[in-house]
């Protein structure tokens, strides 16, 4: 961490100019950058900005890398780091140190750091076995997203993606052309009976977005087109199927048990607005699986599936969960408290240690921010719109800035998230055109990605590779596994988390309920 005094000592500006702030870096010709080059240090493609990373090329097993955090250059955005930027240097160093030891060394916003963590847990390459000459070579690391970008399916491509260049300029795609697996946007008036009740209870699942990734199966490679496929709930992908026949007034709740419901009180789990679908539409695996679970048959017309898949996010979720539980325990909120003791411990826990409270908030924001970064629009080499019909930024390289965060370093071409509509913690798939889909080092290029369908994601930095995948419900990758949900609709899902009324800050048990 470089304080203002340290910046002056090393010949760096205490604050960035407006031009430098928008660029996210100081000019390449700055004297400090030249001094680093003469000393054989290199910068990632993000350049020397608020979260600059300085390294020397690896020599055998010897590696040297320095990650900088420059608060006066607005490195600690309040949207991601709360009031951290206002802390004295010693307290800020303690906060960042705790975060680094429990999660990983922060690399930027919570979204960027979350994506970096994914890549760190599944590096795109590994050293091969020694060849005849005793030399090792770089090879693909099984279970990772690899280092090469992968195209998404046409239905998963976000508006503006080069795959859609043949469509008329102002064409608006409908459910039969585009995957609409968005978070719910639904509400209804209270009934007369509900208006007579004295209390309204709000339920929040701790770490819901991260919990939705637990056990999730995501695609690790390119999609395969299949005509009239037989639906497979274990196969991540996108399916064109008509679910208009699903009647929510009568649903299956057990092996041979059906229940009658009032459909006017619940949203349809098959459209973002909660309305009943009126024809064939593209759905991610978890959404179609839910229709089957409710007791209705499905007959997909066509599909894009990913036979190369895996539980890519398990380690990521476990790392965030362990960091969250350990920090909450330090704040006096243990995982094994009785319900009454848990609620008492939660009251005022942030005042017990403000620095650790920021670590908790940052850990919780990370999973939400990672999924949010998947919906960013593509940008060109200079942060502007991608030229119509031009190559995907992920394939040609270049900088791209993310709408929600500073230019994300990484490369990616497609990624989609599966269906997160049902619950905030569900994964869904999405197409992510970022630069080569290698999350770790390159500046961001497209941005709509990390749990998605086929490619890498933007918030990475130039060296490692980012996720090019598809996953299922939760923050959004598209693929087909589990999802977490809240408890008010007739949809079953898995949600490794606990609500404020639960005895522990987070658990890994599955809860059944609606989206």
Describe the protein's architecture and organization.
- It is built from 14 helices and 15 strands.
- It has 515 residues and is α+β, with helices and mostly antiparallel strands.
- It folds into two domains: 1-74, no CATH class; 76-125 and 142-515, no CATH class.
- A four-stranded antiparallel sheet has the order 7-12-8-11. Strands 1-2-3 form a three-stranded antiparallel sheet. Strands 4-5 form a two-stranded antiparallel sheet.
- Helix 5 (89-102) packs across helix 13 and helix 6 crosses helix 13.
- Mean pLDDT is 76; it is low at 395-515.
- This is Transcriptional regulator.
Mean pLDDT over all positions? 76
Order of helices and strands: HHHEEEHHHEEHHEEEEEEHEEHHHHHEE
Number of domains: 2
Largest sheet: 4 strands, antiparallel
The number of helical segments is 14
**Structural class of the secondary elements?**
alpha+beta
Binned strand content: 5-15%
Low-confidence stretches: 395-515
In order across it, which strands form the biggest sheet?
A: 7-12-8-11
Topology:
Blueprint: H1 4-9, H2 18-23, H3 31-38, E1 42-43, E2 53-59, E3 62-67, H4 78-81, H5 89-102, H6 110-121, E4 125-127, E5 138-140, H7 192-195, H8 208-211, E6 218-219, E7 224-227, E8 237-242, E9 250-252, E10 258-260, E11 280-284, H9 285-293, E12 302-305, E13 309-310, H10 314-330, H11 339-346, H12 349-352, H13 354-372, H14 393-396, E14 417-418, E15 428-429
Antiparallel strand pairs: 1-2, 2-3, 4-5, 6-13, 7-12, 8-11, 8-12, 9-10, 14-15
């Amino acid at each position: 961490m470089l304080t203002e005094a340290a910046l002056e000592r090393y010949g760096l500006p205490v604050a960035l100019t407006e031009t430098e702030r928008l660029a996210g870096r100081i000019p390449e010709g700055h004297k400090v950058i030249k001094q680093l080059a003469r000393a054989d240090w290199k910068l990632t493609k993000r350049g020397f900005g608020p979260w600059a990373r300085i390294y020397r090329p690896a020599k055998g097993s010897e590696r040297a890398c320095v990650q900088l955090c420059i608060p006066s250059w607005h490195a600690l955005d309040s949207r991601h780091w709360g009031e951290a930027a206002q802390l004295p240097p010693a307290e800020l160093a303690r906060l960042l140190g705790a975060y680094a030891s429990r999660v990983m060394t922060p690399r930027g916003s919570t979204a960027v750091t979350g994506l970096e963590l994914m890549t760190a847990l599944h590096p795109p390459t590994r050293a091969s076995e020694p060849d005849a000459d005793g030399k090792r070579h770089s090879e693909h690391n099984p279970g990772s997203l690899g280092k090469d970008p992968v195209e998404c399916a046409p239905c998963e491509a976000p508006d503006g993606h080069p795959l859609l260049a043949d469509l008329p300029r102002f064409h608006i795609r409908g459910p039969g052309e585009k995957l609409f697996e968005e978070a719910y946007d639904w509400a209804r008036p209270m009934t007369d009976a509900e208006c007579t009740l004295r209390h309204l209870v709000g339920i929040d699942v701790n770490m819901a977005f991260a919990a939705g990734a637990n056990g999730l199966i995501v695609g690790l490679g390119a999609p395969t087109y299949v005509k009239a496929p037989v639906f497979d709930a274990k196969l991540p992908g996108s399916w064109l199927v008509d679910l208009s026949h699903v009647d929510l007034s009568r649903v299956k709740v057990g092996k041979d048990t059906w229940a009658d419901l009032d459909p006017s009180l619940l949203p349809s789990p098959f459209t973002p607005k909660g309305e009943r679908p009126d024809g064939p539409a593209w759905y991610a695996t978890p959404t179609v699986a839910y229709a089957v679970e409710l007791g209705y048959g499905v007959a997909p017309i066509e599909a894009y599936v990913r036979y190369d898949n895996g539980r890519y996010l398990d380690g990521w979720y476990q790392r965030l969960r362990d960091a969250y539980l350990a920090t909450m325990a330090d704040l006096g909120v243990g995982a094994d408290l009785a319900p009454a003791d848990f609620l008492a411990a939660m009251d005022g826990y942030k005042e017990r240690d403000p620095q650790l409270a920021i670590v908790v908030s940052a850990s919780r924001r990370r999973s939400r921010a990672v999924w949010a970064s998947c919906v960013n629009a593509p940008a060109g080499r200079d942060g502007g719109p991608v030229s119509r019909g031009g190559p995907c930024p992920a394939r040609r390289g270049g900088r791209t800035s993310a709408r929600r965060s500073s230019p994300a370093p990484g490369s990616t071409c497609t990624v989609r998230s599966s269906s997160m509509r049902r619950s905030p913690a569900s994964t869904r798939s999405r197409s992510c055109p970022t630069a080569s889909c290698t999350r770790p080092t390159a500046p961001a290029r497209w941005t709509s990605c990390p749990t998605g369908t086929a490619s890498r994601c933007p918030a990475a930095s130039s060296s490692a590779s980012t996720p090019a995948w598809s996953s299922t419900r939760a923050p959004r990758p598209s693929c087909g596994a589990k999802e977490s949900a809240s408890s008010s609709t007739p949809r079953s899902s898995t949600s490794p988390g606990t609500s404020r009324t639960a005895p522990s800050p987070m658990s890994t048990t599955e809860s059944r309920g609606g989206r």
